[in-house]
Structures are given as structure tokens and as C-alpha cells.
Design goal:
Radius of gyration: 21 Å
Number of strands: 2
Strand content: under 5%
Low-confidence stretches: none
Distance between the termini: 38 Å
Oligomer: single chain
Largest sheet: 2 strands, antiparallel
Length: about 325
């Protein structure tokens, strides 16, 4: 029953991917929602399942963007190979960052990820021959989804590209759900809840944290590669601190410890940001107030609020059915 319940989250993620085209008129905006949902999934694996608050997610996102840009511009690689390289680039960056960061805990861990974020930003800024510096990589092409030279899906229009991203999004969500439902996922939860006890049992804490980092980096790097092809640009802003901050905010707003919560958080952040920015240039102030409200009153995020509403409705249904049965009995 537990696996059936978790399979529902994959169906819910697929339902979101199917509903976005019906609710939004812009294929680019719908694609952006799924791209940042992928990035939030990677962040949630670290924060919600391993208890690691990393401010280095923008590193993996940016490295994925630059990798996709370089591979497409220099090697003219097909789409699947490009995305595989973007995920590999994010995983390698996460391996480096995680190798040093997991040696510290708490505040020092956060400070290390911040330091790496700044370091990678300045590396990208100065390596103009590779990254384009302040201008970024421009005119990144968007090849069709092909296999063995056979075009499966075109990506010319924004909605055609959305179809490709939606398929990849559901596939990655399903794979990550399998990971968190596996022995590795349950062990990561044990590390999150009581690291000392997990270590005493015999688990290699550093190896487990590093594995979570690498998986998170690969997923976030994939999201970065998809974003670069969506916009046709790999900008310097993709690797800066504010990208890490945005991904972390999406994860917290949605709720930690559940993958579908990340989809809710990313959807809300991207869509609300798009709407509020048309009303008020300083819309981030409103987002800050929302984050304060989440921290004070909705510590399980939007997913926790949704579950409260569902649980509040269910007893009412049971009570009404009991009352009807009692009336029928007395009559």
C-alpha cells in the first residue's frame, strides 16, 4: 500500500504536466515551471531527505547550463547526449562541492556552500572563452529529440519543446521517487533524523551525504541544461547566488520531505512571480512576506496545507455517512 500511495505522487506530477498547457497560454512559461520543478526536486533531496541546507544549487544549475551550451555550440551534439552531459556536469560539480562541504555541519556547512557559490560565480565571470563572461553563451540551438538519427519529437515551437521537457520531467520524478522509496532513501531519512545513531549503526554518513549531493547535482544540472535550450542563452545569472536562493525558496514554500511538494513550490513561485511582476516591480517584497508566513504558520509548506485541508474534509465525510446510517437505522 505504501508503494501504491507513493505512485500517486508520480501520477500527480504527470497531471500537473498535462494541466499546464490547459491553464497557461505561454509554452515558455509552462516549460519554466517544469524546469524549476526539477531543480527544486534536487534541492529537496538534500534538504528534505538528508537535512542539508545547501546554498550551492545554483552552481549545479549554472554548470548544467554552460555544459549544454558548450556541447551544443562546439560539438553540435544531439539533445539526449547534451542533456546527459549537462547532468554529468552538475553531478561532477556536486561531487566537488559535496566532498568538502559534508566535512562540516550546521552553520559551517552552509558557509562552505556559500563560499563555493561565490567561487564558481567568479570563475564563470572570468573564464570568458568558455562561459562568455558577463554576456553568457548566446544563440544556443535547440535540437529535436532524436534517437539513432530518427527524429521522435521536434522542438521548434515552445509547446513542442514543452512536450519534450514534460516527458523528461515525469521520468525524472518517477526515478527520484524510486530513490527516496528505496533503502537509500530510508537511510538518508535516518541520517537526517539522527546522524549520530545512524553512524553508530554502521552507516557511512559521509558516503551517503555525498551520494545525495551527486544525485541532486545531476538533476539540477539537467534542469540547467533544459533552461539553456529553452531560452537559447546560458547567462551568468544562472550560476549566481540568487539562483540558489530561488531554488531553496521554492523548496521551502512547497514543503520538504515530499517530492510532489517541490512541484507545488516551483509552480507557485514561477507563476506568482510572473503575475506579481506585472503588477509591481518590487514583487519580491511580497514574496518575502509570504516566506515569513510559511516559516511562522505553514512550516510544512503548501503541501502540508493541502494535506490539512484533505484531512479536514475526510472526517466530515465519515461523520456524514455515519449520520445517514444512523437515520436509516432509526427510520
Amino acid at each position: 500500500m505504501k508503494h501504491i500511495a507513493h505512485f500517486r505522487y508520480t501520477l500527480l506530477a504527470a497531471a500537473v504536466a498535462l494541466l499546464l498547457p490547459l491553464c497557461l497560454g505561454s509554452g515558455t512559461l509552462a516549460t519554466e515551471v517544469l524546469v524549476f520543478a526539477l531543480a527544486a526536486l534536487g534541492c529537496n533531496l538534500l534538504l528534505g531527505y538528508t537535512g542539508l541546507m545547501s546554498f550551492g544549487q545554483g552552481i549545479f544549475f549554472g554548470v548544467g547550463s554552460y555544459t549544454a551550451g558548450v556541447v551544443l555550440l562546439q560539438l553540435k551534439a544531439p539533445l539526449l547526449a547534451t542533456l546527459a552531459m549537462a547532468a554529468l556536469g552538475g553531478a561532477m560539480a556536486a561531487l566537488l562541492v559535496g566532498w568538502f562541504s559534508i566535512r562540516q555541519r550546521g552553520t559551517y556547512f552552509v558557509m562552505l556552500t556559500l563560499a563555493f557559490a561565490q567561487m564558481f560565480y567568479f570563475l564563470a565571470y572570468t573564464m570568458k572563452d568558455v562561459t562568455g563572461g558577463d554576456n553568457g553563451l548566446l544563440d544556443i540551438p535547440r535540437p529535436p529529440l532524436a534517437l539513432f538519427g530518427l527524429t521522435l519529437l521536434p522542438t521548434t515551437s515552445s509547446w513542442q519543446y514543452y512536450t519534450v521537457v514534460a516527458i523528461l520531467f515525469v521520468l525524472v520524478f518517477w526515478l527520484l521517487q524510486r530513490v527516496v522509496d528505496s533503502v537509500l532513501g530510508r537511510t538518508l531519512l535516518a541520517v537526517r533524523d539522527n546522524e549520530a545513531r545512524a553512524s553508530a549503526v554502521g552507516y557511512d554518513i559521509r558516503l551517503l551525504k555525498l551520494a545525495a549531493f551527486v544525485i541532486s547535482g545531476a538533476v539540477t544540472g539537467l534542469a540547467g541544461g533544459l533552461h539553456a535550450m529553452m531560452t537559447g542563452v546560458a547567462p551568468l545569472s544562472n550560476i549566481e547566488y540568487h539562483t540558489s536562493e530561488s531554488i531553496l525558496i521554492m523548496t521551502v514554500i512547497g514543503g520538504t520531505g515530499n517530492l510532489f511538494a517541490s512541484v507545488l513550490g516551483a509552480s507557485f513561485y514561477v507563476l506568482a512571480g510572473n503575475w506579481l511582476s506585472t503588477l509591481w516591480p518590487r514583487w519580491l517584497m511580497l514574496l518575502g512576506l509570504l516566506l515569513i508566513a510559511v516559516s511562522l504558520y505553514m512550516q510544512k509548506g503548501l503541501f502540508g496545507l493541502a494535506m490539512k485541508l484533505v484531512n479536514a474534509v475526510r472526517p466530515a465525510k465519515r461523520d456524514s455517512s455515519v449520520e445517514v446510517a444512523a437515520k436509516e437505522k432509526h427510520s
